[in-house]
């Protein structure tokens, strides 16, 4: 049986990724590694810290010790830590947002990146620009924070969270060719955005599809 370890920085990414793996790789055994202090520490510092990167390294080394076939990093805020981890952990690692960033770069020149926390916004913007560069494309990125949405989600007011996001997405969509949702927690809104004039991309489906491709390629 295929074994997948998923490293989470909070509980909100567990269910949407679990659903996508169940749909796309139903035969897989999933091991969730969750440390909800990671994202809190990144948010408090305003950026990825060496201490958080070290803990990500440790969790992925532990995942390798479990003899999993592949590791999925579920959080964009700590995605850049994975680049160094790959030098020390031989088990293949997929970032949840890499496929999304590449798809966005191929769709249009004007890319909107939306997040509810700044610690996720900046690394996602850098990833989009990197993927565009890899494709030989020049892009213009418009960054946007959905103010108050993350706080609403933490307080349990998901309706308010969704209302803020949908309003922000609609406004951003008028200025760009494609909108990138920088956090897994935002993905459930996509089915409610049919009236938006440009594609709105989220990471769980495309990230797990990339995971499936990696497994299918023999890694």
From TrEMBL:
InterPro entries: Asp/Glu/hydantoin_racemase, Iso_Racemase_Enz_sf. Coiled coil: none annotated. Pfam families: Asp_Glu_race (PF01177). It comes from the Bacteria. One of its GO terms (molecular function) is amino-acid racemase activity. Signal peptide: none annotated. Gene3D superfamilies: 3.40.50.12500. Belongs to the HyuE racemase family. This is Asp/Glu/Hydantoin racemase. It comes from Caballeronia arvi.
């Amino acid at each position: 049986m295929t074994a997948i370890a998923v490293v989470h920085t909070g509980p909100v990414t567990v269910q949407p990724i679990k659903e996508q793996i169940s749909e796309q790789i139903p035969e897989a055994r999933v091991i969730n590694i969750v440390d909800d202090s990671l994202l809190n520490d990144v948010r408090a510092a305003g950026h990825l810290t060496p201490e958080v990167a070290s803990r990500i390294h440790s969790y992925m080394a532990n995942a390798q010790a479990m003899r999993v076939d592949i590791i999925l990093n579920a959080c964009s805020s700590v995605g850049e830590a994975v680049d160094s981890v790959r030098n020390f952990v031989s088990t293949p690692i997929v970032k949840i947002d890499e496929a999304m960033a590449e798809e966005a770069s191929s769709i249009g020149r004007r890319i909107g990146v939306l997040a509810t926390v700044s610690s996720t916004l900046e690394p996602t913007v850098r990833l989009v620009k990197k993927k565009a560069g890899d494709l030989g494309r020049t892009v213009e990125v418009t960054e946007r924070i959905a103010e108050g949405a993350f706080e609403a989600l933490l307080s349990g007011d998901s309706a308010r969270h969704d209302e803020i996001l949908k309003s922000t997405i609609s406004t951003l969509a008028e200025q760009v060719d494609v909108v990138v949702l920088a956090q897994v927690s935002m993905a459930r809104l996509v089915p409610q955005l049919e009236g938006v004039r440009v594609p709105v991309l989220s990471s769980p489906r495309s990230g797990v599809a990339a995971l499936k491709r990696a497994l299918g390629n023999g890694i």
